[in-house]
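Justification of resources, computational component.

The compute hours requested in this renewal are based largely on the per-chain cost of generating structure records like the one below. Each record pairs the submitted sequence with a full structure-token output. That output is archived, and it is also reused by downstream analysis tasks.
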Amino acid sequence: MRTLVEQARSLAGSWTTSRALVDAALDKIAVDSRPYTDVFAERARQEADLSDRNRRLGHPVRPLEGLPISVKDLFEIEGLPTPAGTPILKDGPVATRDAPVVERLRRAGAIIVGRTHMSPFAFSGVGMNPYGRQPVNPRDPARAPGGSSSGAGVTVGLGQVAASIGTDTGGSVRIPAALCGVVGFKPTKARISTEGAVPLSPLLDSVGPLATTVEDCRLLDAVLADAPPEPHASVPLATLRFGVLKDFVLDEMEPQAAQDFERALARLSVAGARIEPVRLPALNRIPEIEANGGVINAEAYAVHARAGWLAQKALYDPNVWFRLEAGGRMSATDYLNALWGWRELAREADGLFEPYDAVLWPTCPILAPVMAELSDPKAFGRANSLLLRNTRIVNLMDRCAISLPMSEPGAQASGLMLTGPRMGDQRLLAVAAAVEAALEPR
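The structure output for this chain reads:
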């Protein structure tokens, strides 16, 4: 699959057409449609034909003109219900308009070929869903794709589309990106509207792209944020200084993930980047901070209670219900204590991370788990906890981050995460582009 930028260049050079790109995407989706809940084939073809006609007539070319992409199942699409991966919402209210991020994509010329599968209510990092067909990991069909934006990661990993749009509350863009071998960008929350997306944690929900390259993520980020990209020239890797977080995030690493991480750091060092350890032992206080429950659990319970969904307990995925119940047992004091604890951690991290162009740690400490081994709730809970452990730090500290593929070709996928400060998104994307080039397989 060519990147979005490569597809745009082919269209500009009249070497292909939007209709040809859309037909190619739909042909690949027909081979394996499991990543999708909806495929908008007829509308996509009509929009592609219109885009080609407008281009022939010399109309202005928009940033995503004629390019096929997919979006997560929790974004409102005018005229359709918004299932969010659960039968509770499958026959819910029909959306009267597109979500703002969907509007922005369409306004920029993108052609949405479908909506992608997800964990129920976006409340899992594993990417398994007991309802409907299960999308599987592109590297190994026995393994989970990561979640909650599971279908988004798979559809890009399979080359059905060059990019997809997901949400990230505790890692739900970066985890499937890492496990499916693609790039996933979690922006600073405040930059992109979450209106028209079924909420999980209103405080932490963010919207971001999964794509084949950093350049594609930067293109999509500018559209999603409804702002032109800030000018950031190419950054020479040899001028960059990286901190490597040593506390908490390296615990319980699977051997291949650890090897991939060390190899990635070595390649950056050989390319001239400065690599320095960063100690933040305060991260080991996280179990204490969340002794009576976590921020996401409390907010999720409040969202579900307010919406009246809890009355349909029988329709909940048990793994989701378990975490909602935990949130329901929390008091206001428990919630505020967890929130204040994370804010103290964030202030300490801001001071330690400030000297670096980015701080690095593995996106996930483990590889994609084998789905057949997760039928036991305890096994599922452990895998889910480990997959989310490293990524959710970024959300709860209100920072931006990007996951880049760091495994060798043919191996199970793993991700290298670069984290930047709040509102430092454009600088982080420029730094990530330099890192991406150094990590390319040799």
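The first strand starts at residue 36 and ends at 39. The mean pLDDT is 97.
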